[in-house]
Amino acid sequence: MSSMASSSNPSSHPGRSANAERQYTVKREDLPLSCPTPDMALWNSHPRVYLPIEKTGQALCPYCGAEFRLED
Length: 72
Fold this sequence. Notes:
Elements (H helix, E strand, L loop, with lengths): L22 E5 L5 E3 L13 E3 L6 E3 L6 E5 L1
């Protein structure tokens, strides 16, 4: 399972609701980055899109507007 972290520690909620937060912090071990992430439920979300975060350390989902930041 992914070790993603956000303000509410979603990694403790497998199958959590997709796109529930506006900001997420990801680690290099979580790459490649997609929104929704692998541990989010897909039935109530937008199509999965892969986000390029490696170069800038930031990515914005074009569907839901969720902001992702890469933690080193």
